[in-house]
Amino acid sequence: MADVFIVGIGVHPFGRTEGRSGLQQGAFAIRQALDDAGLDWGDMQFGFGGSDSAGNADTVVNEMGLTGLPIINVRNGCATGGSALIGAWQGIASGQYDLGVAFGFDKHPRGAFNAMPAEYSLPDWYGEAGMMVTTQFFAMKLQRYMAQHGITPMALGRVAQKAFDNGAHAPHAWRRSPVDLETILSSQMISDPLTKYMFCSPAEGGVALILASKKKARQLGRDRIRIKAAVTRTRPPGSFEVFSPSLSIERGGAPTLLASAAAFDMAGIGPDDIDVAQLQDTESGAEIMHMAENGFCRDGQQEEWLAEGWSRIDGKLPINTDGGCLACGEPIGASGLRQVYENVVQLRGSGGGRQVPGEPKTGYTHVYGAPGISGVTILER
């Protein structure tokens, strides 16, 4: 497979934007990415776009222009954006194209996600029993993990505190005000042990990435940020995942373990070689569990990591430098691409108040969604 580079990035701020549809937010991000790359919409040879609840991505041509551009619609849970990126990466890595766009957007209704059992091949009683309520499932999964590995509520609070501290420096973040640890820990309990500041919220936003072949990237003077790996995996036997039809008493594998291992193998590097990481943090416990599942620490070691500040901007592995889902919210179609956007910003050295020191050279992203889909990308400067 040939080398593929990210030559342009664009983002529509996350949160709530009245009077602008999700599709229009996606078009906003595409225009910004094109401007960043010094290109026009007519230069694009193909696109992969994703949205969960804001319309078909291919209809973005109504906003951008009717050029006959082939666009593939992607819908793959929280891995929608990452899957769109993989499709675009493959189109260029195969040699079929030289330029393409991966984009994602969403505009979710206010309130919790309203997943329906039938969408996941589950019977109606599964929802009637409350198993479709993601806050309850994630809390239940986290309680078991905390009991097994000695994680405390203090660690959960520190994850959220870090997220809001970082989000204050990210112009695209929804929550841009720091929240002190005491407020986080003493706020309303949603699903024990998770308080309201430990959960992300459905949101709105759009992200676009322009991808190019090595030859084209050099012509543009943009051959700095290379995609070293891009993979997705679904759940293996024995995994403990949201919206699964059954749960094993004994923990088996996990989709993140598979995706992470495959990405590191593809990139030819290991966890110790990563300089900055963006990990799925739909709630504080998710970031903690994913630190270990992605190979960055041992189960239970997260308590020390957070107490020592090792995952903060100036730590040994900065995690979720723009505040992650906790600060940005989670418009499903855009969220995974936001992580990649943030890593490009970091590798370019243009992160401002959230910039990782020491000129990072490698960036890692991980996204996880129902019913057990994980996607990982690795960038290299």
UniProtKB/TrEMBL annotation:
Origin: domain of life: Bacteria
InterPro entries referenced in this protein's UniProt entry, alphabetically: Thiolase, Thiolase-like, Thiolase_C_2, Thiolase_N
Residue ranges of every copy of the Thiolase N-terminal domain listed in the record: 23-173
Transferase is among the record's keywords: yes
Keyword Hydrolase recorded: no
All residue ranges annotated as the Thiolase C-terminal domain in the record: 259-377
Keyword annotations: Transferase
Pfam families assigned: Thiolase_C_1 (PF22691), Thiolase_N (PF00108)
GO molecular function, one term: acetyl-CoA C-acyltransferase activity
Protein name, UniProt field: Acetyl-CoA acetyltransferase
